[in-house]
Amino acid sequence: MIIKKLKLENIRSYKDQIIDFPPGKTLFEGDIGSGKSTLLMAIEFGFFGLGSEKAASLLRAGETEGFVGLQFESDGREYLVNRHLVRKKNSIGQEDCVLKTPEETKYYSATEIKEKILEILNFNEPPDPKAQSVIYRYAIYTPQEEMKAILSYNPDQRLQTLRKAFGIEDYKTAGENTKGLSNEIRLRSKEFAAMALEIQSLQDKVKALKSSISQKRGELENVVEDRRKMTELLQSQRTTRDDLRSSQLVLKGETGKADALYALVAEKEREIKAAQEQLVSNKSRIRIIHPKISEMKGLVNPSELAMKELKVEVQKLEGELVILQELETKISVKFSDYKSILEKGVCPTCDTRIESGRFSDLVLHKEKDLEETHARVLSCTEKLQKTKIVFERKVEFDQTQTRLNDYVKNLSEYEENTRIWQAKFEEASSALEKASAELGIVKVSVQKLQEVNADLDNLERRITKSEEELGRLEDIASTAKANITDWERHKREHEESIAKKLEDKARSDKLNEYQIWVQDYFLPTLELVEKHVMLNINQEFDSQFQRWFGMLVEDPGKQAKVDEEFTPVVQQDGIDQDVSYLSGGEKTSIALAYRLALNAIVRRVSTGMKSNLLILDEPTDGFSKEQLSKVREILDELNSPQIILVSHERELESFADQVIRVSKTNGVSSITVVQ
Questions:
Q1: d(CA 110, CA 83)
Q2: What is the Cα–Cα distance from 120 to 46, expressed in whole angstroms?
C-alpha cells in the first residue's frame, strides 16, 4: 500500500489543500498545533471512515460540508476513494462514498466502502464502520501517545489489545463458543436421557404382558374345547327333552286336569326352589360384601391431588434435588479453594499475598453458602421422600376406590335380585298351596304323569345348568379374547415407547461422547495452540524490541526486554527499573522500540497484508541529539518504500527525501514543500 495523493476540503484547520506523497521518506514538519496530526486523521478517515471518531471532530467549524479524497496504490493498482461529511440540523454524517478502481467508479455506503477497502488491502477484519482498523493502527500507523498508553495498560488489558492486533482473538472467541456448545450438548444430552427413563420398567411390563397373553391363550383353548363339548351335550339333552314333552302331551290328554295340576305343582316347586337358592346365594353375598364396603369407605384419601399431579411433583422435586446437589458440589469446591488460599496466604495464580482479614470473611461467607445449600438439599430430599410415600398411598387409594365402586354396584344388584326372588318365592308358594289342594282330588289320575314330569323336570334342570355353563364358557371366552386384544395393544404401545426411548438413550450417549471430546480434547488443544502461538510471537517480539531499544539507547549497562505478558522491563546493571523514573528520551525510546517491534510482528502475522507504508507520529519526542542521529540508521534499516514522519523536530529534515512544512495562519493550515 502506497499513498499517492490527499485532498482536503473543510477538514479541521484545512480549507482546501492537496498533498502529493512521493515514495521514500516524507517529513511533515511544523509547530505543535499547526495541523500535522490532521493529515494523519484524514488519511485514516479516507481509508476506513470515522471509526470511533466523531464526525464533528473532522468537519471544520462553521462549515456545512467537508471532503476527503485519498488516492493510493495496492498491488500495483491505483484507487481513489472520496468521502463527504454533511451537517444536517444538529448532526453530522457521511453521504454516499465513491470508490474509483481501474475498472469502474461506484457509490457505496460507509459500511460497504469499508468492506471494499479491507478487501483491496487484504485486511482480514470485520467491516464495522464504528471500529478502527486494528491492523492499520498497529502495522502502519499508531499515534505516539496511544503507544505510550498501551505500555501503561494492566497485563490483561494489554494482552487483549495485542490479541486483536496479532489477529489471534479468534482463539478466545472459539473457546467461548466451544464452551457454549459444550453446555448446549450437555443440556440436550440430559433432555434425551430424561426421555429415556423407565426403559427397564417398560420392558418388565412387556415381559409380563407376553406371559399373561400366553397364559390366557392357553386358557382360551381349554375354554373353547369345553364349550364344544357342552354344546354337544346340550343338543343331546334338548333332543331328549323334546321326546319327553311328546309323551307328556299324550298323558295330559288322558289325565286332563290332573296333568295340569301336576305340572303346576312341579313348576311352582321349581320356582320356589330356584327362588330359595337365589335368596340364599344373594343374602350370603350381601353378608360378605357389606364389611368390605364399610372398610373401604373408611379409607382416607392421602392427597387431594390427582395421580398425574403427584407424579409431576415428584419429577419436579427430583430435578430440583439434582440442581441443588450440583450447586452444593460447586460451592464445596470453591470453599476448599478459598480455604487453601487462606492457609497458604498466597494467590496460586498471580503469587499475590492475600489479606487474611478480608479473605477470611470471604471464606466464612462461602462456608455459610455451603451450609445453606446443604440444608436446602436435605430439605428437598425429605420433601421428595414424603411426596413419593403420598404418591404410593394415592395409587393404593385409587385402586381401592375402583374396587369399592365395583362392590357397591354388585351390592345393589344383589339386593335387587333378593327383592325379585322374594316376590317370586311368595308368589310361587301361594300358587303351590292352591294347586296342591286341587291335586289331592285327582292324584290317582296323574300318577303315571308324575313319573314323566319327574323325568322331564330333571332333564330341564340339567338343560338349565348346561345352558348356564355354556353361557359361562361364552363369557369366559369373550373376556379372554378381550383381555388378549387389550394386552396386545398395551404391549405394542410399550414396545413403541421402548423403541423411542432407546433412540433417545442412543442420542444421549452420542451427545455425551461429543461433550467429552469437546470438553476434554478440543478445548485443551485450542488453549494449547493459542499459548504456543502467543509464545512464538512473544519470543520474536522480544527479539525485535531488544534490537530497536539497543539501537536507540547506547548504554551497555541498560537493557530492555518484554516479559510473557508483553510488559516492557528495563534493567540497569541487571536490576529492574521502574519505567516512570526513566528520562523522557528513554521513555520515548521504549515506546518507539515497542512500536517498531509491534509493527514488524503484525506485518508478519497478518497473513496476506502487503503494505509498503509506515507512518511515525512524533517518534523522537524527548530524544537527545545522539538518539536523533540513531533515527537515520533505524529508518534506513526499516527499508520501507514509503515512510511518513510527523514531527516538530527540524533535525529530522536531513533524514527525509522530502520535507513538507505545515503552518497555520489565522486558523487555516497550509503546506509548503521545502526544496
A1: 9
A2: 14
Residues 658, 661: Cα–Cα separation, whole Å: 10
Do 280 and 327 belong to one domain?
no
Q: Is the domain of 58 the same as that of 74? A: yes
Strands, E assignment, 469-599: 558-562, 568-572, 575-577
Per-residue confidence (pLDDT) for residue 611, from 0 to 100 = 55
Q: What is the CATH number of the domain that holds 30?
A: 3.40.50.300
Residue 608 confidence (pLDDT)? 46
Query: Are the beta carbons of 165 and 138 closer than 8 angstroms?
Result: yes
3-state secondary structure 240-261: HHHHHHHHHHHHHHHHCHHHHH
- Within-domain flag for 542: no
d(CA 673, CA 668): 17
Closest CA to 363 of 324, 334, 330: 334
Q: Are residues 8 and 145 in the same domain?
A: yes
CA distance 506 to 514: 12
Residue type, 558: K
Is the model's pTM score more than 0.70? no
Q: What is the rounded distance in angstroms from the CA atom of residue 528 to the CA atom of residue 674?
A: 55
Distance CA 656, CA 667 (A): 27
State the virtual CA torsion across 611, 613, 618, 621 in degrees, nearest 10: 80
Domain containing 393 equals 307-410
Q: How far apart are CA 539 and CA 545, in angstroms?
A: 10
Beta partners for residue 175, in sequence order: none
Angle at which helix 584-605 crosses helix 144-151, to 10 degrees, equals: 90
CATH code of residue 280:
1.10.287
**pLDDT < 50 regions, the chain:** 608
Q: Tell me the average pLDDT of the chain.
A: 82
CA 348 to mean position of chain CA atoms: 33
Amino acid identity at 69 = G
Q: Is 418 within the bounds of a domain? A: no
Handedness of CA 601, 602, 608, 609 (dihedral sign): negative
**The three grid cell numbers given for residue 482, joined into one nine-digit string:** 378381550
> Into how many domains does the chain fold?
3
φ/ψ of residue 198, rounded to 5:
70, 15
